[in-house]
Amino acid sequence: MYEVNHPVFPQLQNIGKEITSKVKPSAIVVFSAHWQAERVNTIEVNVSEEEPLLYDYYGFPRHYYMEKFPNKGSAKVAQRVIDVLGDNGIRTERTERGLDHGVFVPFKVMFNPEQNPLTVPIVQVSLFDDDTDAAAHIRLGRAVEKLREENILIICSGMSVHNLRHLMMLGRGTDRTMPYTVTFDDALKVAAETEPGEQRDKNMIGLLERPDARQAHPTFEHLLPIHIAVGAAGSDQGKQSWTLAEASMGWAQYRFGELAA
């Protein structure tokens, strides 16, 4: 939110402008790395109309905990999510919560309240509790694919590489990039850009078995959102739109499908 000179900043701004000016969704359903369901084999859906921000991070300056991002939820859209998940045999639980920083931090850059405000509802949906089950998250995405036909945009917020421990060891401002940051980011691109179908699913699932996987992701919750995106993409081709391998972090961005002419 504050590092306006970071290369990812204008990339997020461009995505936000495209969404508000060209995609023009009726609502956004978002999955974040920072919400895993508490119950086994259950997906939690935020049904709240009011969504305060969850400052689910620690040790930052005081102003980080005073951030604001105007937003609204939708019980109606949340119910549609619950319905389509139920139709696909996925157990759900209704809950009321705020938006975690995996949502409001990128969204505040994408949808700056003064420059590019977002006026449609946001409904956040959890990941499964098991962060090693990539196949389940592809099935989760496949279950919500139908929402795209209703002009509901699906956004999946994670990181292509995410190793905070090594980032702390390297120190802020380091110019050193860990080898696994590059190799895993490259492997994700190959998998996500595979032709849609069984092989793409297989390649995505196989990422978790790579020798560098646990270096790139000591835990997999930051990787799994793109598995949801792959599932929700259906037969649409995936394409990496931008990436940056930086220290022990990978900032890759992907889109699935093209805008209608």
UniProtKB/TrEMBL annotation:
GO MF terms held by the record: ferrous iron binding; oxidoreductase activity, acting on single donors with incorporation of molecular oxygen, incorporation of two atoms of oxygen; zinc ion binding
InterPro entries on file: Extradiol_dOase_DODA, Xdiol_dOase_suB
Pfam families with a match to the protein in the record: LigB
Names of required cofactors: Zn(2+)
Keyword annotations from UniProtKB, A to Z: Metal-binding, Oxidoreductase, Zinc
UniProt xrefs under CDD domains: 45_DOPA_Dioxygenase
Extradiol ring-cleavage dioxygenase class III enzyme subunit B domain sequence ranges: 3-239
Family in the record: Belongs to the DODA-type extradiol aromatic ring-opening dioxygenase family.
Protein name: Extradiol ring-cleavage dioxygenase class III enzyme subunit B domain-containing protein
Species, as recorded: Cladophialophora yegresii CBS 114405
